Amino acid sequence: MRELRGIGASPGGAAGPVYRLAPPPALPPLAQTVDPEAEKITVRAAVVAVAADLTRRADTTVDAAAAEILRAQVMMAQDETLIDAADIAIDDGADAPHAITDVLAGHRAAFEAAGGYLAERISDLDDLRDRLVAACLGQPMPGVPDLGHPYLLIARDLAPADTAGLEPGLVLGLITAEGGPTSHTAILARTLGIPAVVRCAGILDVTDGALASLDGASGVVVAGVSAETVTAVNAERLAEIERRARSQGPGRTADGHPVALLANIGSVRDLTGEVEGVGLFRTEMLYLDRSDPPSYEEQVAAYRDVFAALPGRKIVVRTLDAGADKPLPFLRLAEEPNPALGIRGLRVARQAPSVLTAQLAAIAAAAAATDADVWVMAPMVATATEAAAFTESCREYGLATAGVMIEVPAAALRADQVLCHADFLSVGTNDLSQYTFAADRMCGDLADLLDPWQPALIALLASCAAAGVEAGKPVGVCGESAADPQFALVLAGLGITSLSMAPRSIPTVRESLAAHTLDECRQIAEAALAAPSPEAARTAAANASRQLRLGDGASVR
Is 478 a catalytic residue? Predict the structure, then answer.
C-alpha cells in the first residue's frame, strides 16, 4: 500500500478502482494547408458541434453554477472574434486544429495575466480548446469514462463540462493532482455529496484499475488497498448516506443550542430537500455574460421565485459580487493592475451606483410580494463607514435587515465597529483566506494556505464571533468550510450562530453538531485555536472530539 496526501475538499470516505479522464486529443504535426476554405469550414463545424454538446450538458446538469460556466463556454466558442482570428491563422498557413490552438493560447495568456476570476477560467479555455480540436480531428470528446460500474475518478483537474454529468452512484469519489479547496471541482463535489481530495501529489502515477481509498476530510488517499477494505469503506459510506436521509430538523447541539443550518444557492433550482433557510443567495448568476444588466422586472421575478419557495424562512441575499477579477461586460470598468484588490463587490457602487440601487429596489419589491424573511448583505466591505452607507441604502428601500460579508481582514479586525451599523455579519472564509494569506485562490502551489484550519483564520473567525456576542447580533459563516462536519464543531464553539453550505452537506453537519454539547464544541474550538498549524489544528479537534465522546473531557481542557 502507498499513502498519498492531498487537501480534503469534500468530506466522506470512498473506495474502489481508480480510472482517469479520457485524455485530450494529441495535436498532430502541422499539416501543409492546401485548401484554406475547407479548414475554415472545419473550424465552423467544430464550433457548432461543441456548442451543441456543451448546451446539452448545461441543460441537463443539476448544478446551476456549472450550467452557467458551460453556457459561458458556448459563448466563447461562438464568439466571432475567435472565429475571425482562426481564419487569419489559417490564411497564414495553419490547419484548423493548430489555428484553434494558437488563438486560444493567446486568450489563455491574457486570462493568466489578468489573474483573479479570469485566471479561474483558464481551465475552461483549455477544455474548450481540447473539445474543438477533437471535433476538428473527428475524435471522441475528452471527459469522464463511462465504465458501467462504480469507480474513483482521478485527473489533473476537472473542467465544468466534465463535472456537469457526474453521477454520484457511479463516481464514488474524486481525486485531483491540482486545484484547491475553493476550486470549481471542490465546490461541485460538495454540492453532489461526492467525497473529494484535491492537490494530491502522485495520484496520476497510480495505474487505472488499481484499488484505492480516500478520506475527503483528512485528504489521505491510500493506493493498493485490499478488496476487503473497499467493501468495508463503501459499506460505511452507504450507512452514512442512510443516516443523512433520516436526518431532519433544525441544527442544534446535543444540549439544544441552536446553530442554524442554511443553504448556499444561485437560483431556485439549487433548493433540494428541506432546508431551514438560505444563508447565501448568489445573485450574480443573473448578470453573467450579458452586455446589458438584467431589467428590474427580470430581477424581481428571479428573486420572487426563491422567496416564494421558502415562505416565512430566512433568506440572505448577497448583492452583486462582481467587477475587477469577476468582470461583467456591461459594467465597462477600466482595467486594473491588480484586479483581486480592485473595484469589486460593494466597491462597484463607487463607479456605478445605479447597479446597486436598482438591485435593492428589485429585492425589496420581491420581498414585499412574499412572506419570506429577507435579509440583504454586501460583499467586499472593508470599513465601518462602508457598512454604515450600505445599511442606510437598504433602509431607504424598506429592507429591514441589512448586514455585510466579512472577507477583508480589516473588517474582521474591526468587526465590533462594523456591527455598530450592520444587523449581522456573514464570514466568507474562501475570500477571507485569500486576503489574509496573500494567496490567490487559483494558485495551486499555495493551496495549503487556503486551508480553513489555518489557525490565523480561526483566530479571525473567533474575533468576529466574539464581536457578535458582545453586540447581541448574529454572525454566520457562508464559506464552504461550513460544510466540514468537524470544522462545524469549531465554528459552533467559537460562537458562530449559523452555517451555510451546499444543501447536500447539511445532514452530515447536523449529525455532527447533534453529537456534542455546546460546552464540548467550545473545548474543541479551544484545541484548534491553540494549534500551530492547520494539520495540528485538524488533529487536535479530532482528538478532542473523540475523547469527549468517550467521556474523557478532562484531558482536553
Answer: yes
